[in-house]
Design brief:
LysR_HTH_N; alpha/beta; DNA-binding transcription factor activity; six-stranded mixed β-sheet; transcription
């Protein structure tokens, strides 16, 4: 099998369509179909399931995709090493990040980095903590932003300490003091998010035995805050999320509640030159963001 075959397989799996993959790669749909058929004949099993809605990975296809990604990433690394030998800085870096890191930091990181290294292209993949972990482990991205509590067995480089805040409707009347306690929060209805979205908040709640009662289970930060602003309950939110929020809400600090944000990867010792350059750029210029 050729590198083009691997690229075709990866692109089809991402696009879910032969026609879309053909458009991305500049090939004809028949060429895409032929490449996949040849791949399946050589492997001896099907890697894609074809139906009217498009194509999906078979169980075999899901298992070999990480290895295909590894081959393509190795080819990219080789190209970057050769370019580095020639005194050039070029290549593609794929970085995964969760919502608040993407909106608060990535625009400035991309602008400051490309100003120095215009030949290095950055691809951004936004998702939940679980998405970023999956992308790192399966070679979809080179490294990503995660919280320390969610990084698991991945290498973790601390970057930013992010306090957790209690967010309440604007008309909320606090009993006393400026800090919100777990006991006070336990008396209120909550708006909560999926655990993969706010694992750090879920961990904090478990640590203080806070079992929130809620009728509202949402996914994104803005929806959560909107529900709070309209009086449907309170929530706990990282301070970083609240930087550009315009909803009228109150924000209360919580004692000893924070998340540590950093960079995660499989192994920082084995990075392609362009990947290592961006990784170091973030470490050196954006610590304590």
């Amino acid at each position: 099998m050729t590198l083009l075959t691997y690229q075709v397989f990866k692109t089809v799996s991402e696009m879910g369509s032969f026609h879309k993959a053909a458009s991305v790669l500049g090939l004809t749909p028949s060429a895409i179909s032929h490449a996949i058929s040849s791949m399946e004949n050589e492997l001896g099993f099907s890697v894609l399931t074809r139906n009217k809605a498009g194509v999906t990975l078979t169980n075999y296809g899901e298992h070999i995709l990480p290895y295909v990604n590894a081959v393509l990433n190795s080819d990219e690394s080789l190209k970057q090493v050769v370019a580095e030998f020639k005194g050039l800085k070029q290549g593609t870096v794929k970085i995964g990040c969760f919502s608040s890191a993407c909106t608060s930091w990535m625009p400035d990181i991309i602008n400051s980095f490309t100003e120095i290294y215009p030949a290095i292209r950055i691809e951004v993949f936004q998702g939940t903590y679980d998405d970023v972990i999956y992308w790192i482990k399966n070679g979809v991205v080179d490294f990503g932003f995660l919280s320390q509590s969610s990084s698991g067995d991945l290498n973790f480089e601390p970057i930013y300490r992010d306090p957790l805040l209690c967010i309440t409707p604007a008309n909320f009347e606090k009993e006393e003091g400026t800090e919100m306690t777990a006991e006070e929060m336990s008396k209120s209805q909550f708006v909560v998010q999926r655990e993969s979205t706010d694992a750090d908040i879920a961990n904090y709640m478990k640590s203080v035995n806070l079992d929130p009662q809620s009728n509202y289970h949402v996914v994104d930060d803005l929806s959560t805050i909107a529900m709070v602003a309209h009086g449907f309950g309170i929530c706990i939110m990282p301070e970083l999320v609240m930087h550009d929020i315009t909803y009228e809400v109150k924000r209360y600090p919580i004692a000893d509640a924070e998340r540590m944000i950093g960079l995660s990867c499989l192994n920082p010792q084995f990075m392609a030159p362009a990947v290592r350059t961006l990784y170091q750029h973030i470490k050196e210029n954006y610590s304590n963001l």
